[in-house]
């Protein structure tokens, strides 16, 4: 019941932030981040109408995907964690989206390993927008080169950009990073017209309002849906 209520609250907040930004509420989708959470929690969210879920750890994600496949439950699975090149095959074979693409080599491998009977893997380029200490994401100047590389790979479909800005409670700092992302997103759309570049994944439990104000089309929410995470059982 808690998860269902939390989801209702989040969806209400999304609508409200969209209204404030004079955006259509259907222009922002919700990714439920279920890392470290059991399949029973995912099932509760699914039964409350949630369709897209995000996982950070390959092995954990694949186990959950297989569980729901066996139940014949159709979920849209997004990989949102750092990916080592020796684990690309599992992502290519099991996930629907890969949001943290930041290297040509990983793109090439995912393309080679994507089963041909499946739809192309939807990918987002991860931009390192403000967190200098983070190893994840490329610098904004590198975006177009990586995008060109991806556009030549038939089993990947470039859908847009993703970022995890350095956490801050300062609203103007949040907005600065998100506005930069929106600019890059527009640049990417203009560089590749007539393609399906429609997704700007940014905003988490603590900065969702700013992200939506600045043009996010997908917010990734974990804690506010499932409660605090317990990492004790994680590798
Ligand atoms: C964990 C995680 C989230 C969700 O964070 P919350 O603060 O729990 O909402 C979103 N995006 C990514 C990439 C994450 O790893």
Q: What do you see in this structure?
A:
This protein has helices at residues 2-20, 39-47, 58-70, 88-94, 104-113, 143-151, 171-191, 208-213, 223-226; strands at 29-33, 52-55, 76-79, 97-101, 121-127, 156-163, 199-201, 218-221. It has a single domain, classed as Alanine racemase (TIM Barrel). Helix 4 packs across helix 5. It has an 8-stranded parallel β-sheet. The chain is of the alpha/beta class and 235 residues long. Strand 4, helix 5 (104-113) and strand 5 (121-127) form a beta-alpha-beta unit. It has 9 helices and 8 strands. It binds pyridoxal-5'-phosphate.
- The CATH superfamily turns out to be Alanine racemase
Stated plainly, the CATH topology is called TIM Barrel
Task: Examine the secondary-structure arrangement and name the CATH architecture.
Answer: Alpha-Beta Barrel
N-to-C SSE string, H for helix and E for strand: HEHEHEHEHEHEHEHEH
Broad structural category: alpha/beta
Mean pLDDT: 95
Number of domains: 1
Counting DSSP E segments of at least 2 residues, the number of strands comes to 8
Strand order of the largest sheet: 7-6-5-4-3-2-1-8
Main sheet makeup: 8 strands, parallel
Strand content: 15-25%
Give the quaternary arrangement of the chains: single chain
The low-confidence parts are none
Query: Tally the helices: what do you get?
Result: 9
Based on CA atoms alone, the radius of gyration comes out at: 17 Å
- What is bound: which ligands? pyridoxal-5'-phosphate
Spatial gap, N to C terminus = 29 Å
Shape: globular
Tell me roughly what share of residues is in helical segments. 40-55%
Pfam family, one: Ala_racemase_N
Protein name: Pyridoxal phosphate homeostasis protein
Family: Belongs to the pyridoxal phosphate-binding protein YggS/PROSC family.
Keywords: Pyridoxal phosphate
């Amino acid at each position: 019941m808690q998860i269902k209520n939390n989801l209702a609250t989040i969806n209400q907040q999304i609508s409200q932030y969209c209204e404030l930004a004079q955006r259509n509420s259907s222009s922002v989708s919700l990714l439920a981040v279920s890392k470290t959470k059991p399949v029973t929690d995912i099932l509760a969210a699914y039964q409350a109408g949630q369709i897209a879920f995000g996982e950070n750890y390959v092995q954990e994600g694949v186990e959950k995907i297989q569980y729901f496949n066996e139940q014949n439950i159709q979920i849209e699975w997004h990989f949102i964690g750092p990916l080592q090149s020796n684990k690309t095959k599992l992502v290519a074979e099991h996930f629907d989206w890969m949001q943290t693409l930041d290297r040509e080599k990983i793109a090439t491998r995912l393309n080679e390993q994507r089963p041909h009977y499946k739809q192309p893997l939807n990918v987002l380029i991860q931009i390192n927008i403000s967190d200098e200490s983070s190893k994840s994401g490329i610098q904004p100047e590198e975006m177009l080169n990586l995008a060109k590389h991806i556009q030549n790979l038939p089993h990947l479909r470039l859908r847009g950009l993703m970022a995890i800005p350095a956490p801050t409670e300062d609203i103007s700092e949040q907005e600065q990073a998100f506005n930069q992302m929106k600019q890059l997103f527009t640049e990417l759309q203009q560089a590749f017209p007539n393609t399906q570049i429609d997704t700007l994944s940014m905003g988490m439990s603590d900065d969702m309002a700013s992200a939506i104000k600045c043009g996010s089309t997908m917010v990734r929410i974990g804690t506010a849906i499932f409660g605090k995470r317990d990492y004790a059982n994680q590798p």
